[in-house]
Amino acid sequence: MSLPIESYAVIGDLQTAALVSRTGSVDWLCLPRFDGPAVFAALLGDERHGSWRIAAAGRHECTSRRYRADTLILETTWETPSGTARVVDFMPPRGEAPDIVRIVEGLSGRVEMTSDMRLQFDYGSVRPAICAIDGGFRAVAGPDAVYVNSPIDHDETDDGRHVATFAVGKGDRVPFVLTWQASQRERPKPVDADAAEADTADYWSEWVGRCTYDGEWRDPVVRSLITLRALTYEPTAGMVAAVTTSLPEALGGERNWDYRYCWLRDATMTLHALVYSGYDDEARRWREWLLRALGGDPHRLRIMYGVAGERRLPEHELDWLPGYESSRPVRIGNEASTQFQLDVFGEVLDAFHLDRSAGLTPSEEAWTVQRGLLDVLESRWREPDSGLWEMREDTRQFVHSKVMAWVGFDRAVQAVEECGFDGPVDRWRQLRDEVHREVCERGYDADRNTFVQAYGSKHLDASALLIPHTGFLPPDDPRIAGTVDAIGRELSRDGLVFRYSPDAKPAGLEDTEATFNACSFWYADALHLVGRADEARRVFERVLDLRNDVGLLSEQYDVTEGRQVGNTPQAFSHVALVTAARALSETGAGRVRRHDPPKLK
Q: What is the structure's pLDDT at 354?
């Protein structure tokens, strides 16, 4: 059996990230980038596919763990009859090369510890050649080289493991440093573990110190913001949706996707959360990333890109990996990158609107790009698309997609009227009104007083909860209250919300959908907006309770199994947490909406 997804904590260096379990094992690490091949892939198989465990001898699971306050430094404590030890895990912000630093500290008595490592490159498929070096050993295969440095000697076993046993007493500190380097390059200079720890703590404390959020639930909000920052690829400012691939949306099922890429939708929602929390530099850098990714042809907008703006993300399967709890196939790349998703145009145009409203310097280059996106939106907004949930076999006239088309035209009108940009504002205003009329006529079920998933459908969709945040309708419109009521009745289970009606699942997929964490936060937010504040708090805190012991959320929650499912940690979930916390911290209904951005410093 695989460890529960909630067993894992994340550490990262703003270019890649590792997952560390409660057993002390690093079971997932891709190098040198988020989307690089894994050197530890036990998460999608077992220890034979690569892992590195440091733990108290004879102990399966730690006694407790936590993140050091306002940092991404993980502290795991092991209490034994003979004493107590702590393992400090972190990845220092990238210098010459990516490093994982693991420091074993003796806290009391004397504790026997073990380090058990198996390196398997290319997602567990390639066993490297190993040779001893000064202070440790070197593993090489193809383009990859990994150096392990420690004062503790490891013995190599016949099956390719490197095992060490040692003891720590009170005050002892034993460092282990794993460093990746391209195999054709010289060995990088080993980092000093103590200095790296201090630098890492200083970096995160300084970053958190810029946070302007002062509402209730500060701890979960700050932890979510740190997680979102950890999902950012610092060299380009691209933001990945999660650090993993193929963690299933249904245990044993086939909804297993690669999330190590930059979805424009997710990134724009992340941008809103960061801007509202005081992170203006991130907003500026993301705008620059987007302009580079689009290049000179905004008509060929992709819904997602690689972390450096790559457009081609071909999908294939890794048949040697059995998958998390036998959930197959294991996929690398993402075929959805070629889909037409209409709502993304509105999301991107709204992000540029946020930049302007929040005080970023207006950019003619950015406006030229927006004009190109508006041309596409004008010519294609009537077409069916794959929608927010990326239906792979079935395009529809999704209501959320049309609402976001309205957003695109609305923000264009505002750009002309409020910022003085040049454009056919009368035509955009006319299109905005036409979209609005059509959505209200064809996307609204008057008999049930609710917006539906798609034109002519009876199915509900949780994305309708976002309508008042866009400005399409105010929160006090009775159609909004009716939609919130209907979703509460038909899509909610114990305060947790499914994405859509069970009968509306994508064609060709037979497994059962779990509740979607972001949708549950949207529900709490929507309840607040329509004036049901007490219910909103109960739902919000119910979803907060789904976080694991270090405050992380995956994509979904299986209410039957009582477990997190889907890729982790999930940006969408943490963005929705921050947004809902901000809204619920305001007094009175309907006070905070996504289209009312703050002014940046």
A: 86
